[in-house]
Amino acid sequence: MRKDGRLEPNELRTVTIETDYLKHPEGSVLITAGETKVICTATVEEKVPPFLRNQGRGWVTAEYSMLPRATAQRNIREAAKGKLTGRTMEIQRLIGRALRTVVDTEKLGERTIWVDCDVIQADGGTRTASITGAFTALAMALARMVEQNKLNTFPVVEELAAVSAGIDGEGQTLLDLCYEEDAAADVDMNIVMTASGRLVEVQGSGEEATFTRAQMNELLDFGEQGIQQLIEAQRHALTEIHQDIPDWMKGVSPDASSFNCDE
Amino acid sequence: MRKDGRLEPNELRTVTIETDYLKHPEGSVLITAGETKVICTATVEEKVPPFLRNQGRGWVTAEYSMLPRATAQRNIREAAKGKLTGRTMEIQRLIGRALRTVVDTEKLGERTIWVDCDVIQADGGTRTASITGAFTALAMALARMVEQNKLNTFPVVEELAAVSAGIDGEGQTLLDLCYEEDAAADVDMNIVMTASGRLVEVQGSGEEATFTRAQMNELLDFGEQGIQQLIEAQRHALTEIHQDIPDWMKGVSPDASSFNCDE
Amino acid sequence: MRKDGRLEPNELRTVTIETDYLKHPEGSVLITAGETKVICTATVEEKVPPFLRNQGRGWVTAEYSMLPRATAQRNIREAAKGKLTGRTMEIQRLIGRALRTVVDTEKLGERTIWVDCDVIQADGGTRTASITGAFTALAMALARMVEQNKLNTFPVVEELAAVSAGIDGEGQTLLDLCYEEDAAADVDMNIVMTASGRLVEVQGSGEEATFTRAQMNELLDFGEQGIQQLIEAQRHALTEIHQDIPDWMKGVSPDASSFNCDE
Amino acid sequence: MRKDGRLEPNELRTVTIETDYLKHPEGSVLITAGETKVICTATVEEKVPPFLRNQGRGWVTAEYSMLPRATAQRNIREAAKGKLTGRTMEIQRLIGRALRTVVDTEKLGERTIWVDCDVIQADGGTRTASITGAFTALAMALARMVEQNKLNTFPVVEELAAVSAGIDGEGQTLLDLCYEEDAAADVDMNIVMTASGRLVEVQGSGEEATFTRAQMNELLDFGEQGIQQLIEAQRHALTEIHQDIPDWMKGVSPDASSFNCDE
Amino acid sequence: MRKDGRLEPNELRTVTIETDYLKHPEGSVLITAGETKVICTATVEEKVPPFLRNQGRGWVTAEYSMLPRATAQRNIREAAKGKLTGRTMEIQRLIGRALRTVVDTEKLGERTIWVDCDVIQADGGTRTASITGAFTALAMALARMVEQNKLNTFPVVEELAAVSAGIDGEGQTLLDLCYEEDAAADVDMNIVMTASGRLVEVQGSGEEATFTRAQMNELLDFGEQGIQQLIEAQRHALTEIHQDIPDWMKGVSPDASSFNCDE
Amino acid sequence: MRKDGRLEPNELRTVTIETDYLKHPEGSVLITAGETKVICTATVEEKVPPFLRNQGRGWVTAEYSMLPRATAQRNIREAAKGKLTGRTMEIQRLIGRALRTVVDTEKLGERTIWVDCDVIQADGGTRTASITGAFTALAMALARMVEQNKLNTFPVVEELAAVSAGIDGEGQTLLDLCYEEDAAADVDMNIVMTASGRLVEVQGSGEEATFTRAQMNELLDFGEQGIQQLIEAQRHALTEIHQDIPDWMKGVSPDASSFNCDE
User: Fold this and answer.
1) Considering only CB atoms, which chain E residues are within 8 Å of C85?
2) Which PANTHER family does the annotation name (chains A, B, C, D, E, F) (predicted)?
3) How close is the nearest chain B Cα to the Cα of C88, in Å?
């Protein structure tokens, strides 16, 4: 049995995605994965960063932060320190890069989508939960832009989610590590994958251990299973807001293939 | 009728205080006042800042922040800017100063209580909601320290809450302004008061208007009413966790008017 | 008898206002209140901050600083630390907000007035002395703009000054606290008021004490008396430069109660 | 034919490692991989960071920077900007983490090894060249500590090197991308591996593309080949300084298996 | 005739040195040189910077700043910018280095003297006026330490002052340039010299011009004359406070050679 | 005999200047003076800083840095500290000011030349080696602009180099101090001079010692000799690239003593 009571090594934690969690943002969710809770919002800005001006393309960027008591020990605020930690920079670069892979920035037009991931409570896997939640908030914001005729077509190419996997001290591969498992793991991997099983990002590392190609393959197998379930959860969450959105998006149901079809 | 539908000028918005909102902190609440939502946590640290070392006294300090999309327009993160705004500094100094007024720091011993107020959604009155919520989180953390025999006595001297009041463009005094009212007000006042009606902090200002002593008195009258109701809400919230805390806290207030009773 | 030798609780310290203290600024004074000495200057800039562009209105903003040895212990320079303290931010926001209350920014046109308050020597009441001095420097700069036909009308709506009041450990209300009194006070209040007795800003707080509504009223009564005397001192100072300024300023105030007359 | 004239997709660029490149550091190399040139140094400090004090273990940490004109366009210095970019943070965290995987920090004792990687000229693959060069500089510094009896045993567990691989716009897998290839690649992967073929770190990502499990495997196959050659180059470089170092290290020859044996 | 009305090229501006200008510092002066006005203070701290600990020696360090409206155009505060300019750093390093040349830091003991130079009004020569004023404030603070038996001997080795000289567009050498002269000069030199005519610091530069050895000699000749007069002014200023200080310092008279004798 | 083995007090260390050291910059050299090694590059940017816009003139500016292990003890990176030290600011201001003295910025047109000096290895005299190397890199970049018809005339007015001189503890004047000599010197002087022997910049200082006019003259005599030899080295280095540059540069100097001749 696993440290948080799960029975199987390839078992995902319970995931919930509450849509329209906040009043002001164009898209927002509260995603929970076990005890990990992240608020993800998507904000539409009608301009692009200087390096993209006058190219007819948009941009998607992400920021990530934790509340000071998201963790067992209080963390000093980065705003109080006056700078971001390397960990934060690394995570927000990862989130932005992953999301850009599935957005057609030409269809988006000269706009920036700011995705904010704020971890309210942390119990392992905050960066992967952020990506999974961020995709949902982003899809909501973009769907509303179609609904409001600000976009002609839904610019998402394919759905995307993320999960962690790791290898514990006994060599056991585990899916979706909770904090206690993560702290004790020899190898830690974060996997971002699309609905069709294509890889977007793979980051595997062992701080004081190494791993074989065979182990790497098992980590990816576990991740692939988890991501399929997470994409189901995203579809389920987005379905719930169908009453208020136009027909084209209702295709995004668990059994319909076409999340992003706008026919 | 008021801009958010309230019927009376001296009517408070609906207040809810959800205790133990987060898993890790020693005390935590989610306070909502109308559409304003703030997570307040209290963290106990077993040391004091350098200027207080070896004096046998403790310290209470506060930090305040907003999620970027707590507001209608996205705000740039202070961590990204690399510094706190003057507004944030002003607010967190106010919260800390107010809380210290009602804590007996000698009874607290050489410890620091860090109070974090993170605004999840803003609709006016975030600093006063932060104070009201912060007091509750602080009381929870201190009650647990008594329960765990880390403290001999509960070091809170008296209960405390805060509310805003203002004067609108027609000269009407209003209690507990929502954002739309606040943005249009000529005069804005924040009032922090104890259960016995003593003033802790009064900050009244008019950016482009002035006010009379008579108006000031009406603002304080409105504030006093609101604060009595907020203290009732705090007592109600703390009562809910009574099963898990010792008897002594059930009659905690100095003068038997009973800190936490609403029976 | 008071700690600095004054005989009455409602007695102001000796105030002097030396006009045209510096050569370069459009308006400048050295104000002394007892041992507290502040250089206040007003600078006219022919543009406004981005948020005000093309609105036909001006802006008044303030900055505040202390020399390192203005105080008994040397303070580290904020420039060396690389950031402003919360105290400085709070004070400069207060000064700017107060001054804006009495300037008609539409009459000012698209200009910014920068008010700089630099404390040369500190003995309590530096923020209130800054406001009283800053108003005088600002009025000088604006009067010269009228004289030079850069402004058609003098854009000051009403005169304004500021003073502190407090309650000592024995419950005695005191006006215009010197540093020694301030350090020992239970309650500290800063009051900004116009010549006609209207309130601009009230900030009262007790770090480790609370106060009643009755005490609050006495603090305001004391403040009101002090402010009348400070406005007389401002008028006296401005009168001295009348030889060099046009007639219109000799009866500048809105209701003939005469901004600058002390004849 | 490849953009820089190489004939084979799995061909490494010419690698040279000049040892003792600088006079002062305990270990230093100039590593060149094609047109990419990096100075790597290792500095021994006789203390550890606060979080490791009194645990009997050491630490290895890395810093990375580029000269402003290492690149075709001049980059603003991070020292002038006042902060590190996310890219720099990400790279130096990667280098440090990778090196720690192959150092037995208990054998190192309470010391920190600072590894500095300064890119003099950039033409793709600066982070992987940094890791390959950094390992050599680190090994030199540690070997000298053994020689000087500051260490009883050589604390390196196994040799390590790094290389990039990618997929170009036609789906062709390429080893060791030069800048022009890297800028045009759909997928980019950095691989850190030990002499025995165990993975230390895998980071694969596609900014605007995705990749399959099969492609991932080919990228790893290419990387594995490249790393074997890079480890040969490291061994060759270290062999050249054998005259000045003790016998135990001479085992680190191209044909001997055991770089780190000290039996 | 010179731009500020002086008749001779080697004529110093009027210098005044007002001692004990501020209440709190151990030593303080207001020095004026023509229209340039600088407040210089000396603060005694009973510890040394880390690099000097336990060496039985003291330290003298300086900080320099300008009020925003010391100049014709308002300067942004360095505290607001969050960092010191290169000009400020250069000047405060110069002041500190010059003062350390004439203080016997072993006699000073493990103490730091902080010298603060704050320019109230600038009209050229602020760095040299700062040095001349700073020496006087420093001497006052050290004399008082002798008087209070905190020091056995007066640790000043020799008196010191500073002045500028320059070459104008017509090749004329000028002493003690006012701002208007300085802005138009081809060559600018700052000279720090002791009472006995020994050089402490020479900094000569031409931004868009060069100069000959012969011109350099004339600049030094002018500087030497000016510095003798400035040292007379220092002696005169210090003599005025002799009533309050012990006999040994009275030797510091205009006609006595020995400022620093304590035999 | 001198500490690094030189036989004469007025003997320069061996100087080498390797041109086109880096691939990307418009001009670049590796200059070595004894054990001191500096990479100097010149970058052409087709715009000027805001204060020079639309004036038809260019700008030359310099930045200076050291690798962390350029020195015997590792230095913390300024990028990691988040700010430049005063020493760095002082040096880069000196380099820029010196270079601007010999460039006709009107002939340069509205362009900025960024000169970067990065010290790879330090053994005294890094700032003077930087100036000598920087001039060569600058001349290379400007010559290429003439060659490419981006400039009509070569905008360098005269050649320039820099060297240090000092006085040791026995009063001996020394030219071109190595680190060990510099650390023990009583007086340190940096001299920047043109080919025709005109002074550009003189900075002489004694941290804990003073010096006479006679000593100052000897320091300048030594400097003058050294600079003539350094200018020969620059000419020699530039000659090597003559095959690739147009004829006009072969007789570039103002008085036919021939900028680049080494006949």
Assistant:
1) none
2) EXOSOME COMPLEX COMPONENT, EXOSOME COMPLEX COMPONENT RRP41
3) 9
Q: Which of A25, A28, A69 sits opposite B25 (nearest CB)?
A: A69
- Amino acid letter, D97: R
Closest listed residue to residue A140, CA positions, set A254, A5, A42: A42
pLDDT of residue B206: 86
Residues of chain C with pLDDT under 70: 240-263
Which residue blocks in chain F are alpha helix, DSSP H? 78-81, 86-101, 105-108, 126-147, 179-184, 213-239
Mark residue C20 as left, alpha or beta (left: phi above 0; alpha: psi -120 to 50; beta: remaining).
left
Q: Provide DSSP, F148-192.
A: TTS-SS--B-S-EEEEEEEE-TTS-EEES--HHHHHH-SEEEEEE
Closest CA to D162 of D135, D123, D182, D191: D191
pTM of the model: 0.92
Partner residue facing C199 (CB), from B90, B101, B216: B216
Domain boundaries, chain D: 15-245
pLDDT in tens, B95-137: 999 999 999 999 999 999 999 999 999 999 999 999 999 999 9
**For residue A101, which residues of chain D lie inside 8 Å, CB to CB?**
206-210
Measured between alpha carbons, how far is E229 from E220 in angstroms, rounded to an integer?
Answer: 15
Subunit contact C22:E80, Cβ cutoff 8 A: no
Cβ–Cβ below 8 Å for B205 and C92: no
Task: Classify residue D219 as exposed, middle or buried by CB count within 10 Å of its CB (0-12, 13-18, 19+).
Answer: buried
Per-residue pLDDT tens digits for B215-235: 999 999 999 999 999 999 998
Which residues face F263 on adjacent strands? none
> CA of D46, closest CA in chain F: separation in Å?
12
Rounded to the nearest 10°, the torsion over CA D139, D145, D149, D155 is -40
Q: Is D210's CB within 8 Å of A204's CB?
A: no
Q: Is E199 within 8 Å of chain F by CB?
A: yes
Q: Report yes or no: A241 at the D interface, CB cutoff 8 Å.
A: no
The domain defined by E15-245 carries CATH number 3.30.360.10: no
Residue F256 has pLDDT above 60, yes or no: no
Q: Alpha carbon of B98 to those of B60, B103, C210: distances in Å? A: 10, 9, 10
**Pairing label, strands D160-167, D112-121:** unpaired
Of F72, F79, F82, the CB nearest to D65: F79
Contact C93 B101 (CB under 8 A): no
Quickly list DSSP for D243-263: GGS-GGGGG-STT-S-TT---
F232-252 burial code (b ≥16 CB/10 A, e <16) = ebbbebbbebeeebeeebeeb
The residue whose two tokens read 């490419």 is F148
Nearest beta carbon to residue C209 from set B90, B101, B216: B101
For residue B116, the cross-strand partners are B41, B63
Residues C63/C77, Cβ–Cβ less than 8 Å: no
- Chain A residues whose beta carbon lies within 8 Å of the beta carbon of residue B74: 25, 43, 45, 114, 116
What CA–CA distance (Å, rounded) separates E19 from E32?
A: 12
CB pairs under 8 A between D and F: 92
- At residue D194, what is the residue type? T
CB within 8 Å of chain D, chain F residues 148-167: none
- Token pair of F135, please? 């001039």
ipTM greater than cut 0.95: no
> DSSP secondary-structure letter at E209?
-
Q: Indicate yes or no: CB of C82 within 8 angstroms of CB of E77.
A: no
Find out whether F193 and F165 touch, Cβ atoms under 8 Å: no
Report the candidate in B171, B200, B203, B198 with the shortest Cα–Cα distance to residue B185. B171
Mean pLDDT of A26-52: 97
**E-interface mutation test, from F73, F101, F210, most E Cβ less than 10 A away:** F210
